Amino acid sequence: MLKDTSPPSKRRSRITSGARLLPTVRGDSQWGRIMGDVYNSALAHCGGADYVSELQRLQCRRIGALEAELVHAENRIAAARTAGEEPPPSLLDLYCRLSSAQRRHCEALGWQRTARDITPDLRKYIEQKSADTRVGGRSEGAALPLEKACIENPILESSVSESPVNSPVSDFQNPESPISESEK
User: Fold this and answer.
1) Residue 126 — pLDDT band, cuts 50, 70, 90?
2) N or C, which end of the chain has less CB nearby within 10 Å?
3) 81 shares its domain with 133
4) Residue 1 — pLDDT band, cuts 50, 70, 90?
């Protein structure tokens, strides 16, 4: 057997790489949109496309395909009922089997959502903090000393001059404030 020496991106099919939903069905068809929407929702349920294993991805795909079929089966059942007819027993049987299969796939993934781990990598966090320090001496959003904040923001400067520290009520904090005879 010959070894394939082509780059890995060339060896994967468009379907397994995620470029196409199905080989012959357009992704913008009603069935394809339902399947794609449910597939993406199931991936998000598992923590996101970048965090699932290949087997979880396959389970999500099956859940999406089964949901698309179940929606169309529900539509046929509803149409029969609306017309005053009984849905065919074979359709009801198929619906039950499909929903049971979908439930088993869902159980394999788990009913509870998986939170995506957003904890930063320690090395990246340290590098980011050191880059913030080098750029402006402080990280974005960090508090400035009051004097520097007033220089950068004239509105703050006017509100600081009217602050309680300089008001007559708190003159005891200002050593240069004159003390009246009644206060002595």
Assistant:
1) confident
2) N
3) no
4) very low
Query: What single string gives the DSSP state of each residue in 125-176?
Result: HHHHHHHHHHHHSS-TTPPPPHHHHHHH-HHHHHHHHTSGGGSGGGGGG-TT
Task: Tell me the range of 37-41, 146-150, 157-161 where mean pLDDT is highest.
Answer: 37-41
Integer Cα distance of 134 and 35 in angstroms: 49
| Cβ pair 141, 135 in contact under 8 A | no
Q: Both 45 and 96 in a single domain? A: yes
Give the lowest-confidence range in 9-18, 96-105, 108-117, 164-173: 164-173
Using an 8 Å Cβ cutoff, are 47 and 55 in contact? Answer: no
Query: Which pTM was predicted?
Result: 0.55
Nearest to 96 by CA among 109, 83, 87: 87
SS3 (DSSP) at 3: coil
Helix or strand holding residue 73 (H, E): helix 54-82
Number of domains within the chain:
2
Residue 2's Cβ-count burial label (10 Å; 0-12, 13-18, 19+) is exposed
Q: Are residues 79 and 155 in the same domain?
A: no
